[in-house]
From TrEMBL, chains A, B:
Catalysed reactions, as listed in the record: acetate + ATP + CoA = acetyl-CoA + ADP + phosphate
Pfam families tied to this protein: ATP-grasp_5, CoA_binding_2, Ligase_CoA_2, Succ_CoA_lig
Keyword flag Nucleotide-binding: yes
Name recorded for this polypeptide: acetate--CoA ligase (ADP-forming)
């Protein structure tokens, strides 16, 4: 559908200019690099630019079909008019390069909304505003004002920052890295990452998808699309504004509303996206994917002519969770055949300082044939005897043919430059440090897992939604937004076990309730005004007989009156005391970008300051629920470590799935928490002890 | 004392060669670059090399003083003979470049020991064997076979890997980075890092000390020297073999016995060393120190012409623990005066894409004058209007004059090359990513703290060493090496509070002991064969009367017989039950490189799998003891978080100091542990509940 945007027969430049240094001239010149393309300058003040006939208006262009694509570079306030004219002229695709929109304040935002309406009215597709333009090396289109040359390649890149487009193109030009499509997203008023992910998915010239994003426009849709696309092509994203400082900077930059970083981490993970921590990492990973097959495991062979570099690389592998390979006997024997006696025949293989290209070739051949090796890292230091370009040549040939990934780190400066040139001529990256090569190898390994993960969709759980609906409606009709203990029964609609509990408004009622359920019991204050019950003495544990209940009731009432004299108290709740379990928390917050963000963690004091919690965007699959539970650091405590019995993890997983269904069914629930969920030993289930949720007002 | 090694008047090359490509020729040529140096080739087979008269033997060199320095490049087995001749000829300094020593196996190790003896016999200093040689750019000495040019600079570098020397020189040559002294350490048979740290300390041409090490030769001495040196010059070390995989590779590389990584971390920290995680980091940090003054705080201003880069850099600052500066009103006003209206006047300052050198200059001047700014990071993207070399020129001038550190990231490739050239000509580093610039700024900030830390020496605590000595002697006389509960009294010699406990050999004795100390009590099995008492039912808590003691005694005996029928049981220990405290652990292991390594952590299950412990090499100072306690992640739990009372941290600190003294006084204690130490609420002290230690056999 975006075919004509990236492979047009004719392109109009609205705001074309004769003046060198002006954007309207730079765009024109870039387009004219492709002699087969019909380029139409639009400018009311001149008749001709760079030998092309110039028209005052797109409507005045002769013929029925005016242009497949219009690139707009006029000042912001004139942009809506130009778009309107494009619409009238039947132009279906526009790129708005001009700045001065949402990123520039209130008036800009109004102009941007106007552009969006016009696009909707005419059914037009728009990239930008506030962007650098686009490049398609396969079709030969350069509809940008970029000053750099873009080489052909298989990496599709989109960036929400025009300057980062420039930086990337400049970096790529120096080392000869290439791109299939290059898109400056700008303010993403109409077209955004989701549309382009789908474009790249079906683009035969794209093998790798890379992006710099400051936010995503539609989180839930993004996850769905990324899940599908990541099965065929790796998606590598650097998302800035990770921290609160960065987020503030983001909103002043492109006016993007930044969601929480935890939500991005969760959403990217669920979508199969590889998150890079920096621009450098994104580019490093992209280049590894652009040339390497995927490793089927995490066992890496290192070949080096410098012991020290080998050790540093082994350290880096270990830190990244990669293993140093254990070679077969036969591999070691074959290495011994040609390598000098003082060489190291175990991983890392040290071919010694005077090794030539033939020894590197032999060592690479031998280790790659070993069934225990999934990939290799080649390290070359420029020692006095080292034939750097010769080794580069051999290694490059291997990389091109190998069925296992090979990455290299020619380490140094002056004397490795010739080797880098050789690698560049093959389109092969040289990593300037072994740590960078290792990080990229790790990305390849991780993507192998992503690509081959089980296809699973969240299942719709059966529930008594009618009961839940009536419950929510009743709660909504109350004035307060936050609901607690008294609303525990909503969990029953989703078959989540709830502790036996009864409400009592007076002391006699409390004693009666306790006797009815059997001792020991727990007493909790019931008040819409009290959120942290412990802080005001609002919880009493382990009450063993009527006397205990009486003493607890009286002192609780007096404590609460003391600490929170204004709190309205509606009574107390008695719960059956549950022993022998472990407390966990299941929660949900609505993220502005991704919607319902589920949280799981251990209960108690530790969770608060260890921040040891896991997240996922609902609705979740069984695998995602399991992962939420197993990915917290304190998982061994519930899985059972020395002296601890194993908890019923399956019941936690089931409860997560049920909460996921509940918050998906009722978008009016803004926040939700079961705290604690008491998890019993394996096979004995779990039970919700208290809840808290907030409804939309 | 090493003066003549690095600034000799005459140098002999033993094993000098005419043949191009041979090490003996390369060394000769490098030495001859300095026309003022008297170079003397030694080779029995020729009379002259490269126009210099050649002698068969160093002894045959005419004159009284033969040479200030001899560089030996003959095969390993001939090296001891050559050293012996040097000794006879009165040569005081030798560099052995030849390989084939400790790193090559048993025979090599024997040869190396022979060289060491000869050096001791003649009082000679030796660098190597198995090294690349040394370079001193101030004196003009190049006594190495390095093929690269070494530029003058203020960074002194030593490396345990010759190949890493080569990589570093090659890297430096490409970008024009310079060194004061460059030392390939080789096998460190005689001279090692400790001697060179002291040399660099007093070297007027050295401002920054950098090292690649695979181990240190004398850990305790290293800490002492580094503590002193790091007060005047930064010491940046990359230590490889961090992981078990890497450590194995280290020992096969230079035959270094790798101590534990935890000990290196602790020793480096105590020595004021900045530990780099990679070669790249070491070089990045070194270059920042080589040009920048130190920042007096962690508030960083970012100046950028690209919003996206600014956000990524703000994220990186936050992750590194640096703050984005809050500008004074006046700063913002002054920025507004010259910057365009659409610019961002808050940190990160966005001067916009078309900014010229003058705007960068203005912005830098203004933010650096702000009292809230301690340092600046300048980001430059090559946009179409950007005068890259012009900006580089202005920024370089500022960096040279500024009293606050400025680091830069000219981001891109082709079009920033001209900017990099300008920076290189000023000796100023360009960081290829903002993350690398931020990491280096963080290193500058950290060193400011190190340089200004309080001078403190471990205090010798008074103790009843006589009592402790008799105790240790008695324990040593027993056959077993491991001692436990029954030896608690050794703590009393160091004034460490010990729980009231009594030993009982029979049930009646046990009841009598319990009645004597008062209920409730804890009962523990006493057996030299049982180390994990809990696993065999060897601990019973909260015994409240004689009946409890009887039941516990009988079932414990039966349990222990069941689980460990062969264990010799000498009785039980009764301890006063202590409630209301928190369990912590204080331990010590002897590290092969650093000696007594103290450990501190919380007790209980968490500590086992969170690995949340801190380390320091004994003897420790009060500040170090405090840091051990406060640096664990679970520190809030003992400091007091919501719902938790604060523990008596001072009593933990005192106990750490006492244990530090104990293990320093008695090197025959190989392992030591108080587990648990029960810490009471603030002001109420702590008490040791159980110990375990192992003596040298």
């Amino acid at each position: 559908m975006l075919e004509k945007m990236f492979n047009p027969n004719s392109v109009a430049v609205i705001g074309a200019s004769r003046t060198k240094g002006k954007v309207g001239r730079a765009v024109l010149e870039n387009l004219m690099q492709n002699s087969e393309l019909k380029v139409i300058p639009i400018n009311p003040n001149v008749d001709e630019i760079l030998g092309l006939p110039c028209y005052p208006n797109i409507i005045d262009v002769p013929g029925e079909a005016k242009a497949d694509l219009a690139v707009i570079v006029v000042p912001a306030k004139m942009v809506p008019g130009s778009i309107d004219e494009c619409g009238q002229a039947g132009v279906e695709n526009v790129i708005v390069i001009s700045a001065g929109f949402k990123e520039a304040g209130v008036e800009g935002a109004r102009l941007e909304r106007e552009c969006i309406s016009l696009c909707e009215q005419y059914g037009m597709k728009m990239i930008g505003p506030n962007c650098l333009g686009i490049i398609d090396t396969a079709s030969g289109l350069n509809a940008s004002f970029a000053a750099n040359v873009a080489y052909e390649g298989n990496i599709a890149l989109m960036s929400q920052s025009g300057a980062i487009c420039t930086v990337t193109l400049d970096w790529a030009e120096r080392i000869g890295a290439g791109f299939s499509k290059f898109i400056s997203l700008g303010n993403k008023a109409v077209l955004a990452e989701n549309e382009f992910l789908q474009l790249f998915e079906n683009d035969p010239s794209t093998a790798v998808i890379a992006a710099y994003l400051e936010g995503v426009k539609d989180g839930p849709e993004f996850i769905k699309i990324a899940q599908r696309v990541s099965r065929s092509k790796p998606i590598i994203i650097v998302k800035s504004g990770r921290t609160s400082v960065g987020s503030r900077a983001v909103s002043s930059h492109t006016g993007t509303l930044a969601g929480s970083d935890a939500a991005y981490n969760a959403g990217f993970k669920q979508g199969g996206v590889i998150r890079a921590d920096s621009l450098e990492e994104m580019l490093d990973y992209s280049r590894a994917f652009s040339v390497c097959p995927l490793p089927e495991g995490r066992n890496i062979a290192i070949i080096t002519n410098a012991g020290g570099l080998g050790i540093l690389t082994a350290d880096a592998c270990y830190n990244a969770g990669l293993s140093i390979a254990s070679f077969e006997e036969n591999t070691i024997e074959r290495l011994r055949e040609k390598l000098p006696a003082a060489a190291n025949f175990y991983d890392p293989v040290d071919v010694l300082g005077d090794a030539g290209a033939d020894l590197y070739e032999h060592a690479l051949d031998v280790v790659l044939e070993d069934i225990n090796v999934n990939g290799a890292i080649v390290l070359v230091s420029p020692q006095s005897m080292t034939d750097v370009p010769g080794i580069a040549e051999k290694v490059a040939e291997k990389i091109k043919k190998s069925k296992k990934p090979i990455l290299c780190n020619f380490a140094g400066g002056s004397r490795i430059a010739a080797g880098e040139d050789v690698l560049n001529s093959y389109g092969i990256p040289n990593y300037s440090s072994s740590e960078r090569a290792v990080a990229s190898m790790n990305a390849l390994c991780n993507y192998y897992t992503i690509k081959n993960r089980k296809q699973e969709q969240p299942e719709k759980l059966s529930s008594d939604t009618e009961f839940a609906r009536s419950f929510i409606n009743r709660a909504s009709s109350e004035k307060r937004r936050t609901h607690g203990l008294e609303s525990m029964d909503i969990l029953k609609a989703y078959d989540i076990p709830v502790v036996d509990s009864r409400i009592a408004k007076t002391l006699p009622e409390a004693i009666k309730a306790a006797e009815g359920m059997g001792y020991p019991v727990v007493m909790k204050i019931l008040s819409p005004d009290i959120s942290h019950k412990t802080d005001v003495g609002g919880i009493r544990l382990n009450l063993k007989h009527a006397d205990d209940v009486e003493r607890a009731y009286n002192s609780m009432m007096s404590d609460v009156r003391h600490y929170m004299p204004e709190a309205a108290v509606t009574g107390v709740q008695l719960q059956k005391m549950i022993g022998g379990g472990k407390e966990v928390i299941i929660g949900m917050d609505r993220d502005p970008q991704f919607g319902p963000l589920l949280m799981f963690g251990l209960g108690g004091t530790y969770v608060e300051f260890l921040k040891d919690v896991s997240f996922a965007v609902a609705p979740i699959t069984v695998a995602e629920a399991k992962h939420m539970v197993s990915s917290i650091k304190t998982y061994p405590l519930i899985a059972g470590v020395r002296g601890e019995t194993a908890s019923d993890i399956d019941s936690i997983v089931q409860t997560l799935l049920k909460v996921s269904q509940l918050v998906t069914d009722f978008p009016e629930i803004l926040e939700f928490e079961i705290n604690p969920l008491m998890v019993m030993p394996e096979g004995e289930g779990c039970v919700a002890m208290d809840i808290r949720f907030t409804l939309e007002s």
